[in-house]
Amino acid sequence: MASSSLTLPSHSLPSLLPTQTPRHPFSHYLPILSNSSQSKFYGLKLSYSSSLSIPSSSVKGSIFAKVNKGKTPPPFTLKDQDGKNVSLSKFKGKPLVLYFYPADETPGCTKQACAFRDSYEKFKKAGAQVVGISGDDPSSHKAFAKKYRLPFTLLSDEGNKVRKEWGVPGDLFGTLPGRETYVFDKNGVVQLIYNNQFQPEKHVDETLKLLQSL
């Protein structure tokens, strides 16, 4: 029986396929960056390339939370959007919803802030206060609050000192600040810790659910 063989053209098969520039493994989540531009998420300088450089220290410090349910967190004093000093102890006596978010004016953070705004009357009815914290400075918070008519306090954790002290875990191997919400009872004890980076509006649903049971 005569054997048959297939002869390919001299150009190889891969050369017939369209070539594509490899995508960044996390490009779906990261903002579009020009060469060595400033990331709005964390203030990190990222160079656009096909590989992600991860500082060895960022993975270590972002795995185990230091603030746990049933505990009282470390105290802090931070500036609000008006530049006034605000201490955590100020909110004692009423339930408190305190949420850490990556940065002002990013899409997810804007959705989350507006979701808290739209449900603010429900929080007031539950007797709870709402406070947002990010690493942005007070002037950024002031502009953000004014633009979206936010009726609650925004605190400036410049240098992410409180975030680190509380052990708020980061996402994307520590390159993106975590989106984490804490609910405190009137005695300042943590009753809920909710973490969800990519569904920011769910933070409102989960916190209201818990507040109704306090």
From TrEMBL:
GO cellular component, one term: chloroplast thylakoid lumen
Predominant cellular place of this UniProt entry's protein: plastid
Xref: PROSITE patterns: THIOREDOXIN_2 (PS51352)
Organism of derivation: Fagus sylvatica
Enzyme class: oxidoreductase
InterPro entries, alphabetized: AhpC/TSA, Peroxiredoxin_BCP/PrxQ, Thioredoxin-like_sf, Thioredoxin_domain
Keyword Cell cycle: no
GO biological-process terms attached to the record: cell redox homeostasis; cellular response to oxidative stress
Keyword Lipid metabolism: no
Family: Belongs to the peroxiredoxin family. BCP/PrxQ subfamily.
Protein name (record): Peroxiredoxin Q, chloroplastic
Compartments where located: Plastid, Chloroplast thylakoid lumen
PANTHER family per the UniProt record, alphabetical: AHPC_TSA FAMILY PROTEIN, THIOREDOXIN-DEPENDENT PEROXIDE REDUCTASE
